[in-house]
Write a structure and sequence with these properties.
The complex is a heterodimer of chains A (about 160) and B (about 650). With about 160 residues, chain A is mostly helical. Chain A has six helices and no strands. In chain A, about 75% of the residues lie in helices and about 0% in strands. In chain A, helix 3 packs antiparallel against helix 4 and helix 3 runs parallel beside helix 5. The chains are: A mainly alpha (about 160), B alpha+beta (about 650).
Chain lengths: ~160, ~650
C-alpha cells in the first residue's frame, strides 16, 4: 500500500471526509443561529447542503477507490490517471456546489456550478476505468501491483493461453 | 484504433458545435422582448415556484394570496354554528351541514327556512371575510352575501354596518355581483366574460330597462384565484418558457439587464412602479367605452409595466359622474381638499404627495411584498421614522427639534403628522397616503380631520394653528370658522364627533380612543359623555367606533383607580335593536353621572361640560343639528 497514487487517494479521501464533516458542522451552526445569509436563501441552502453531501460521499468513494485500485489496476500509468481523475472529480463536484451558492441569483447558482458537471466527468472516468479494470485486468493472486510495474498486462486470453 | 477514436472525437465536437450554435442562436433570439406583450399567457404561481421558491414562499404567507378562496374548512373563518342573526328585519342563520357551509334565510312570518344558499367562495382573510354564493337561476354568477365575519371582534356583521352607510337601508343594499365587481382586484388574470353583453347593449339602446345584476350571464375565468405573482409581475407563461434555456438565464444574470418577458416593479420608473399597486389600490373607471367593453368581456387591459392612465381614469374629487348616477358619487370619497378619505385610494394619495411628484417615493419605498410583516406589508423598521429618513436623512437625530415634540412621543413619529389617520375603510381608520405638511387651520376650513387635534384631543383647531405658526412659520393661519359651521372655540374632537359629516364623525369617534394620544387616563374622561351621545348616531360605524373608544377610555380610568360600570356595554350590538341600544347607553350614562368625579381634572375649555362633567346638552345637540344640516348622507361600500 505504498503506491503514491493509492496513498494520494487515501490522503485526499480522509482529509476530505474530515473537511466535509466540518462543513456539515458549520451548516448546522448556521441553522442553529438562523443565519440569514444561509437560512433565508433557499438556493444557497440547497447548494451548500449538496456540497456537504457530495463532498462527504465522494471522499468516501475516493478511499474505496484507492483500496480497489490497489487490488484491481495493474498498470501504473492507468492507475495514476484514474486516481488523479477521482481526486480532481471528488474535489470539483462539492467545490462547484459550494461556490455555486456564493454570488448566486434568486433562481440559479453562480457560474462556478460548471465545476459540478466537469467534476462528474472526472469521477465518471475514474469509476468507469476502475470498473473496466475489474472486469478485464485482475492481478494474479500473489502479485502486488507496483508503481512502475513492467509486467505486461495479463488478459483472460493470455491466462487461458498460459494455462494451455 | 486511434483513427476510429479521432473520428469519434471530431464528430462529437462537430455535433457539440452545431448544438452550441443553435442554442446560442435561440438564446439571443429569446433575449428580445415578446412581440405581443398584451397577449402573453398566464403561468400561475405554481409554475413560478419551481424557480422562485423563496419569493413564492414569502408571497404564500400573505393575505393577498388568500383574498379569494374556495370555501373549505381551511379557508372559512366565520363560525357557522347555526345561531340566528336578525338585522334590518331579516333573519339569517350561518350553519354547517354535510361538511358544507350554508346561510339559511328564514321566513319572517313562519320563522322557517325560506332559502338556503351555499357558501362557495370566500373573499378576504385579514380584517374581515365575505362570502359568495351562486343561485340555481344565476348560472355562473356569484353573489356576495349579507353577512361578513369580522376577525377582530370575532362576530358576524351585516354589511350595512361594516360599510359607511346610515341605518336607513335595505337588507339587500350591498348584495353585489362578484363577476363584474370584486373579480377584478381580488384575483389574478380575471375575465368576467359577460356572454350576453351585445344583447343587453341592444336592449339598452332600445330604451328597455335592464337589471344587469340579474340579467347578465357570465362565463367568468381566472388565471388564478387570489392576488398572485402575475398580478404584479405580469403574465409569466412566456417568461417560464424562455427561461428553460440555461444559456438565456446566465446571459441575463451576467448582463445585469432586466428580463423583457417579466416585470420587476423594483426596476420600473417611479410612475410605472406605483401603477402596479395602483391598479387595485386606486379606485378607477375604464378610460374609454372600448376599455369598458374589454373589461367586462375579455378582462382588464392593464398589465404590470404599463402606464395605468393609458387604461383607466383614477377617481378624483372633481371627476365627472356619468349621467343618471348620484352626482356626488365620486366627490364624497374625498375630503374637500381632494385628499382621499377611503381605503383603496392610496394611489391617489401618493400621486398628490410631493415625495412622489418631486421625489422618488414609490409604494415599495416603504412596503414590501416579500419581506417583513404581512400586516401592512411593511418591514419592521418602516413602521417608524426609518421609512422617511431614507430620503430625509438630514433630519436623522434632529427629529425632535423639527417636530417640537419629545423624541420618543407619537408627535415625533413622522407618520403621525405627515400621514395622519383620516381614511376610513375595512371597519377601521387608516393612515392617509397623501404625505403632506399638516395645516390645522386649512383642515378646519376644509372640513377634514387634522393631525394635531386627532392626537391633542382636548384642543381646538385655533390652538393647533397657533402652535403651528409659532413653531413653523407665518403660513399657518388660525381658522376663522369650521367647514361645518361649528364654533372654532370648541374642542376639535368634540365638534367633529357631533357636527362633522358621517365620515368625520366616524374618524373622531375612533381617534378619541387612540392609545398614543397626548392625553391619557383621567385626562380623556371629558370624552365619555360625548362618546355616549355618539353611540346614538344614525351611522352604525360611528356607534361601533365610539364604543371601541369608550371602552379604551374606561380602561384608562380603571388604571387610574377611577371607574364607572360599563358591563352592560359587553352586549352592546352596534347594529342591534335600537331600543336595546338606547337602554344600554342610558344605563351607562347613569353610571357615569353617578360616579364621583372629584378625582378628575377639570374638563378642558370648549368641551361642552360643566365643572362636574355634566354635558351641556343643548350645545351638544345643536352641534348634531349643524352636522345634519351641513353634511351629505354618505352611503359608500368598499
Amino acid at each position: 500500500m505504498t503506491d503514491p497514487d493509492i496513498r494520494a487517494c487515501l490522503r485526499y479521501g480522509w482529509t476530505a471526509i474530515a473537511a466535509f464533516l466540518l462543513l456539515g458542522l458549520g451548516l448546522e451552526s448556521l441553522h442553529l443561529v438562523k443565519a440569514p445569509l444561509y437560512f433565508e436563501v433557499r438556493i444557497r441552502r440547497e447548494l451548500w447542503t449538496l456540497a456537504h453531501a457530495h463532498g462527504g460521499l465522494l471522499a468516501l468513494m475516493t478511499v474505496v477507490f484507492g483500496h480497489s485500485a490497489a487490488q484491481l489496476m495493474r498498470t501504473g500509468a492507468g492507475r495514476r490517471r484514474a486516481s488523479l481523475a477521482m481526486r480532481i472529480g471528488a474535489l470539483l463536484v462539492p467545490l462547484g456546489f459550494l461556490l455555486g451558492g456564493i454570488g448566486n441569483t434568486e433562481t440559479d447558482p453562480s457560474l462556478a456550478i460548471v465545476m459540478v458537471p466537469l467534476g462528474a466527468v472526472f469521477v465518471l472516468h475514474a469509476v468507469v476505468t476502475l470498473g473496466i479494470a475489474a472486469w478485464k485486468d485482475s492481478p494474479i493472486a500473489g502479485e502486488v501491483p507496483t508503481p512502475d510495474s513492467a509486467a505486461p498486462p495479463v488478459s483472460r486470453k493470455g491466462r487461458k493461453h498460459r494455462r494451455k | 484504433m486511434r483513427f476510429t477514436t479521432g473520428i469519434i472525437i471530431v464528430l462529437a465536437a462537430a455535433a457539440l458545435a452545431v448544438a452550441g450554435v443553435l442554442l446560442a442562436k435561440g438564446t439571443f433570439a429569446s433575449l428580445t422582448a415578446p412581440e405581443h406583450p398584451d397577449r402573453m399567457g398566464w403561468a400561475t404561481s405554481d409554475t413560478c415556484a419551481s424557480c422562485h421558491r423563496d419569493r413564492h414562499a414569502s408571497w404564500h404567507r400573505t393575505f393577498h394570496r388568500t383574498m379569494t378562496q374556495p370555501a373549505s374548512d381551511q379557508s372559512v373563518l366565520g363560525i357557522f354554528d347555526g345561531r340566528e342573526l336578525t338585522y334590518w328585519g331579516r333573519t339569517a342563520r350561518p350553519v354547517k351541514r354535510d361538511g358544507k357551509f350554508w346561510f339559511d334565510y328564514l321566513d319572517p312570518a313562519t320563522g322557517k327556512t325560506q332559502v338556503s344558499l351555499p357558501v362557495l367562495r370566500t373573499v378576504g382573510s385579514h380584517r374581515y371575510q365575505q362570502y359568495l354564493t351562486q343561485t340555481p337561476a344565476g348560472g355562473d354568477t356569484y353573489y356576495r352575501l349579507h353577512l361578513l365575519w369580522h376577525m377582530e371582534t370575532e362576530r358576524w356583521v351585516h354589511i350595512n354596518g361594516a360599510f359607511l352607510s346610515p341605518d336607513e337601508q335595505d337588507y339587500d343594499a350591498h348584495i353585489a355581483v362578484w363577476n363584474h365587481n370584486c373579480i377584478f382586484c381580488h384575483n389574478t388574470g380575471p375575465v368576467p366574460n359577460i356572454v350576453n353583453y351585445e344583447e343587453l347593449g341592444q336592449r339598452e339602446q332600445r330604451g328597455e330597462p335592464i337589471n344587469s345584476a340579474l340579467e347578465a350571464k357570465y362565463a367568468s375565468s381566472l388565471a388564478e384565484m387570489g392576488i398572485a405573482c402575475e398580478a404584479c409581475h405580469g403574465p409569466g407563461e412566456e417568461h417560464a418558457r424562455r427561461n428553460r434555456n440555461p444559456l438565456r438565464r446566465y446571459a441575463l444574470h451576467l448582463s445585469g439587464k432586466p428580463d423583457p418577458t417579466i416585470i420587476n416593479p423594483a426596476r420600473l420608473d417611479t410612475a410605472r412602479s406605483v401603477d402596479v399597486c395602483g391598479q387595485c389600490h386606486g379606485q378607477r373607471t375604464p378610460k374609454t367605452p372600448v376599455h369598458q367593453e374589454h373589461w367586462i368581456t375579455r378582462g382588464l387591459t392593464f398589465r404590470a409595466g404599463d402606464m395605468l392612465t393609458d387604461h383607466v381614469t383614477p377617481l378624483h374629487r372633481d371627476l365627472e359622474v356619468p349621467k343618471g348616477i348620484n352626482p356626488e358619487l365620486f366627490s364624497l370619497r374625498f375630503w374637500p381638499d381632494g385628499t382621499p378619505r377611503l381605503t383603496a385610494y392610496e394611489y391617489q394619495g401618493l400621486k398628490q404627495s410631493k415625495c412622489h411628484t418631486s421625489g422618488e417615493l414609490t409604494c415599495i419605498s416603504c412596503h414590501t411584498m416579500h419581506d417583513g410583516d404581512v400586516d401592512g406589508m411593511l418591514p419592521p423598521e418602516h413602521r417608524g421614522n426609518a421609512a422617511c429618513l431614507q430620503c430625509h436623512e438630514e433630519l436623522a437625530g434632529e427629529v425632535s427639534a423639527h417636530s417640537h415634540h419629545e423624541s420618543e412621543s407619537a408627535g415625533s413619529q413622522c407618520m403621525s403628522c405627515h400621514m395622519p389617520k383620516v381614511v376610513f375603510g375595512l371597519m377601521d381608520v387608516k393612515r392617509s397616503h397623501r404625505i403632506e405638511i399638516p395645516d390645522p387651520g386649512a383642515n378646519a376650513l376644509n372640513g377634514r380631520p387634522n393631525a394635531c387635534t386627532s392626537c391633542h384631543l382636548d384642543k381646538t383647531p385655533v390652538w393647533a394653528a397657533e402652535r403651528s405658526r409659532e413653531w413653523w412659520g407665518e403660513q399657518f393661519a388660525a381658522p376663522a370658522q369650521r367647514f361645518d359651521g361649528a364654533p372654532v372655540n370648541i374642542v376639535d374632537s368634540i365638534a367633529s364627533l357631533h357636527a362633522g359629516d358621517p365620515l368625520q364623525r366616524a374618524i373622531a369617534a375612533r381617534m378619541s380612543g387612540r392609545g398614543d394620544a397626548s392625553i391619557s387616563g383621567a385626562g380623556r374622561a371629558f370624552l365619555v359623555p360625548h362618546l355616549l351621545l355618539a353611540m346614538t348616531d344614525n351611522y352604525p360605524s360611528t356607534r361601533r367606533l365610539s364604543l371601541h373608544s369608550l371602552r379604551s377610555i374606561a380602561a384608562g380610568l380603571r388604571h387610574d383607580d377611577l371607574s364607572f360600570d360599563t358591563t352592560v356595554l359587553d352586549s352592546f350590538d352596534f347594529i342591534g335593536d335600537a331600543q336595546t341600544r338606547a337602554s344600554q347607553v342610558a344605563q351607562v350614562k347613569a353610571n357615569w353621572e353617578a360616579m364621583n368625579k372629584s378625582q378628575l381634572p377639570p374638563p378642558p375649555a370648549g368641551a361642552l361640560l360643566d365643572s362636574n362633567y355634566q354635558l351641556e346638552e343643548t350645545a351638544a345637540l345643536r352641534l348634531i343639528e349643524i352636522g345634519h344640516e351641513a353634511s351629505k348622507q354618505i352611503d359608500i361600500g368598499e
